[in-house]
Design goal:
single chain; 158 residues; mainly alpha; two-stranded antiparallel ribbon
Length: 158
């Protein structure tokens, strides 16, 4: 039994064939394989109509000033382009109203609360602001131990 051995299958035959070729033979075989792949790919692209000789023209788009024919003239005769002028612009008048808001005690308090700074969590707790969330007045990364956006969190065991 010639093919029943442990290393007598087609996979082992291919491995022995590659081993006999050496580095130069492997490089040549890979280069030839790539050449064949490029030839096949080029044939497929040619069959699809893609060519380097004729660049594809982009689809015609309409612009505000001119209009081009959507179907190209294949007769070889020069074509006449038609210029389309846009309609006259219409003027639109918009009225605006200016509203002036006077400062109230509430807005003054919110401005003052934006300047709040707590040195440590004991100060924040004493002011009744703990826990302080990111974006709230008085929040600072030095107060947030775990970096989750909540400073001076209540903790168990103290």
């Amino acid at each position: 039994m010639a093919g029943s051995g442990r290393r007598g299958g087609s996979v082992w035959r291919a491995r022995r064939w590659w081993a006999r070729r050496g580095l130069f033979g492997r490089v040549v075989a890979i280069a030839l394989g790539l050449l064949v792949a490029f030839i096949v790919l080029g044939g497929l692209l040619e069959a699809c109509g893609v060519s380097e000789d004729e660049p594809q023209e982009p689809a015609p788009t309409s612009s505000a000033g001119t209009s081009t024919p959507s179907v190209p003239d294949l007769s070889g005769q020069p074509t006449k382009e038609t210029e389309v002028t846009p309609p006259a612009a219409t003027a639109t008048v918009t009225e605006s109203e200016t509203v002036t808001e006077e400062a109230t005690p509430d807005s003054a308090a919110s401005t003052a609360s934006a300047d709040v700074y707590y040195e440590n969590c004991d100060e924040a707790r004493a002011a009744g602001a703990a826990p302080v969330y990111a974006g709230d007045p008085g929040y600072g990364p030095h107060l947030d131990r775990d970096g989750d956006g909540v400073a001076c969190e209540p903790y168990v065991g103290h």
